[in-house]
């Protein structure tokens, strides 16, 4: 049986990958957070334990069951076994893991930014998979909106950036404004 991993960020946007058998799932006991580490100048989207939270996302097969290759792609994150925490409609025996930035690598402060081109990709995926309620759920179940957001839409820094419709862009911007997020022009 092939192992699976749970994604809660860009993986939710199926236009950014070719992972087979991607399926909707939920991760119980975790919530998302924007975190800073010395590993890079932009904020990581990670998850933190929270017994009162459930987040939506997708699970997908690990290509060729090659965890080593996926671990390289997810550099800066640690792989965590999450079989019992991931709720899905696949065979219950499927082995599932997720990735999180180790809390001992987090730093406070600094000039880290959230890339708007990355956030756009994530929100586009949540809108397609879970509708407007899924987008609201993403914003509500994610901490760290006090982290400044770098508006790099004109020249995306995120390598898997996607083109958004005017409605998708407005949805991202509205949700950022509702949370009082600071958007800085690149």
Describe it for me?
The chain is an alpha/beta fold and 186 residues long. Helices cover 24% and strands 31% of the residues. It has helices spanning 67-73, 116-140, 166-178; strands at 4-7, 23-35, 44-61, 78-81, 86-88, 96-100, 114-115, 142-143, 149-151, 183-185. Strands 1, 2, 3, 4, 5, 6 and 8 form a seven-stranded mixed sheet that branches. Strands 7-9-10 form a three-stranded parallel sheet. The termini are far apart. The mean pLDDT is 92.
Biggest sheet, open or closed, and with what strands and sense?
A: 7 strands, mixed
CA-based shape = globular
Structural class by SSE content: alpha/beta
Q: What is the rounded distance between the termini? A: 45 Å
Mean pLDDT value: 92
Helix content: 10-25%
Number of helical segments with 4 or more residues = 3
Unreliable stretches (pLDDT < 50, length at least 5) are none
Compressed to H and E, one letter per element, the order equals EEEHEEEEHEEHE
As a whole number of angstroms, the C-alpha radius of gyration is: 16 Å
Give the strand content.
25-35%
DSSP summary, beta strand count:
10
């Amino acid at each position: 049986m092939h192992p699976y991993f749970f994604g809660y960020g860009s993986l939710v946007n199926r236009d950014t990958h070719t992972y087979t058998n991607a399926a909707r799932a939920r991760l119980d006991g975790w919530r998302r957070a924007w975190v800073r580490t010395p590993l890079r100048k932009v904020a990581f989207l990670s998850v933190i334990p929270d017994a009162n939270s459930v987040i939506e996302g997708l699970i997908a097969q690990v290509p060729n069951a090659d965890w080593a290759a996926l671990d390289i792609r997810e550099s800066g994150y640690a792989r965590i076994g999450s079989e019992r925490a991931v709720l899905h409609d696949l065979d219950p025996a499927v082995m599932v893991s997720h990735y999180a930035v180790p809390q001992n690598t987090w730093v406070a402060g600094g000039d880290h930014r959230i890339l708007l081109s990355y956030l756009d990709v994530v929100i586009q995926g949540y809108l397609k998979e879970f509708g407007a309620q899924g987008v609201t759920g993403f914003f509500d179940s994610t901490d760290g909106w006090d982290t400044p957001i770098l508006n790099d839409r004109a020249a995306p820094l995120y390598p898997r950036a996607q083109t958004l419709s005017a409605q998708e862009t407005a949805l991202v911007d509205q949700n950022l404004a509702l949370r009082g997020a600071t958007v800085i022009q690149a």
